[in-house]
Amino acid sequence: MNKTLTISIAAYRVEKYLAECLDSFTDPRIACDLEVLVINDGSGDGIRDIAREYEKRYPEVFRLIEKENGGHGSTINRGISEAKGNYFKTVDGDDLVRPQGLYELVSYLRTAAADLVVTDFESFDNETGQVLQEMGTDFTGKKNRQCYSFDEISRYVYVNMHAAAFRTDILKGMGRQLDEHCFYVDAEYMMYPVPGVETVVFLEQPVYRYRLGRDEQSMNIRNMQKNMAHHERVLTHLLEFYREEQAGMTGAKRAYVAKGIARIAVSQIKIYLSYPADRTWKRKLRELEERLKQDYPAVYHSMSNPAVRLLRCTGYVLYPAASWLCRRAYKI
């Protein structure tokens, strides 16, 4: 039998947090609707032992999948291929969900027809557990549980990975896989399904809880410098996706994807600015800008970041100052 919702959990070196994560999926009211795939990404016995304990205690909910290490993208690719739920959501093994929010989401999904269901989410401090920020997807006149055309609302929102539950057959049929052995694939996960998404529903209850404050997290600026080639690879593949798919997308979808890729391009520029100012990093910044301007003008003009626009309008004369300010902001 199909389940209502598949949760794909990326589990790599998260032994300290995994039990807390899995506990948040044990509400007996939704056990028959929920499939939780714990994907052990080559992380050894610790993850395996925890996951097997939950398989024994909740055999109708949890399933351990073991694979060689391939990175976050590989766990999502595997989760999509294994999923039996009508909808699909990803959760990192060091994060968790609000049980009541999950119950409300699953209850809605039992009879849902929308291609994408969006929920609010929150971040919390790793040390204190205190909620740091509550994040929603808001726009003027938004009505929860109303089915919107994606084209109708795409200009007003950008849907975060932590907010999204996609119809699984869209993911299975999108004809693309996320990069493996690579960080920063969240953007691929949120962009690649867009051509197949026609309808969107927003729910009122927050679901995802995102843990902040771990030094090893990929969005730490030092780690972004270390993994810069990964970030560049994801940006390159997103640009290729845009080039190959733009003719088949509506104007609204093209604009949405261009804006999404622009966010990644801005992050790439911030990585370049986070190094001490010199000709090497200025050249890389200029080369990226020229490539976008010439080959992907929609992406180029969607980069609304004030620092990037200031650099452009001054002919990059302010590059040393921008680099200094970036490094000061990141305390490096």
Explain how this protein is built.
The chain has 332 residues and is α/β, with parallel strands linked by helices. 44% of the residues lie in helices and 19% in strands. The protein contains 14 helices and 12 strands. The chain has helices at residues 15-23, 45-57, 72-82, 99-109, 150-153, 168-172, 186-191, 221-226, 228-245, 251-273, 279-295, 297-301, 306-313, 319-329; strands spanning 3-11, 34-41, 62-67, 85-92, 96-97, 116-118, 121-125, 131-135, 147-149, 164-167, 199-202, 208-212. The radius of gyration is 20 Å and the shape is globular.
Overview in brief:
The protein is of the alpha/beta class.
Q: Give the CA-based shape.
A: globular
Given helix and strand content, the structural type is alpha/beta
> What does the radius of gyration come to?
20 Å
Task: Please count the beta strands (DSSP E, at least 2 residues each).
Answer: 12
Helix content: 40-55%
Q: How many helices does DSSP assign?
A: 14
**Termini Cα gap:** 53 Å
What's the overall average pLDDT, rounded?
A: 95
Q: What characterizes the major β-sheet?
A: 8 strands, mixed
Weakly predicted, low-confidence segments: none
**What portion of residues belong to β-strands?**
15-25%
| SSE pattern | EHEHEHEEHEEEEHEHHEEHHHHHHH
Name the strands of the widest sheet in spatial order.
3-2-1-4-10-6-11-9
